[in-house]
Write a structure and sequence with these properties.
Layout: E1 13-15, E2 18-20, E3 26-30, H1 37-50, E4 54-56, H2 74-87, E5 91-94, E6 109-112, H3 120-127, E7 133-136, H4 143-155, E8 161-165, H5 183-190, E9 195-197, H6 199-203, H7 209-218, E10 223-227, H8 245-261
Bound molecules: phosphoenolpyruvate and manganese (II) ion.
Amino acid sequence: LANRKFHPDSSIFNIAGRTVGESHFSVIAGPCSVETIPQMTETAEAVKKSGASFLRGGAFKPRTSPYSFQGLHDEGLKILLEAKKATGLPIVTEIMNQAHLDLFEDVDIIQVGARNMQNFELLKELGKCNKPILLKRGLSSTIEEWVMSAEYIMAGGNEQVIFCERGIRTYETFTRNTLDLSAIPALKSISHLPVIVDPSHATGLPWMVESLTKAAIAVGADGIMIEVHNNPKKALCDGAQSLTPQQFDNVMQTVKKRVEFEGKI
Ligand code: PEP
Ligand code: MN
């Protein structure tokens, strides 16, 4: 179902009035985790002003250590929905357990994180809902495995899947992960689904976000997801890789120029 052979035209999704795929370049921005109402509304207003199309923020966080901040759960989703109401920005947030699906009713795009890319029971449940799914690449997953995970969702009847390349594990330690730019043309050739790039998790380095955003546009990505925090130093999660609203605004100036040059909107 994800294969371009049987669906030659690229898929274009209309999500909360925004077009995702092909001739549109989508920008998802926001903090790693939802923390407080002021943190979320301030960040949301800022990324909206700079031109983001979607607001992100995690309420259920898949942390490596059980002692790290795990997210605010349903309280976090409430705050995220407040920020959606205040700014009108559609929201993207991660699901970790299919039992929580009811809480995601007003979420516009449900994210499946890298760690759950092969949580097949979760994927099957998401296949039964009619919400767009942002499917991040597993930590060490091949493109074939990743496409098969999309297939799990689509086989259930939900064909709105967006791939998100977020870097893979290699021997390199300079960056948090290694951004696999070749995955974008690879996926574009074998699948009709949109592909976006997350330079924040791929590098862990805020100063690399701009160059890799340019690279993502150059290789044909349909959008980017960037972590932005109103006060990165105080962030409860991924502060070190988050951009300040000012840094994000600078990146967006570049995005606008490049995207126009590429003929995307
Ligand atoms: C995230 O988007 O905050 C996240 C946890 O990403 P990943 O699943 O790609 O590590
Ligand atoms: Mn994060």
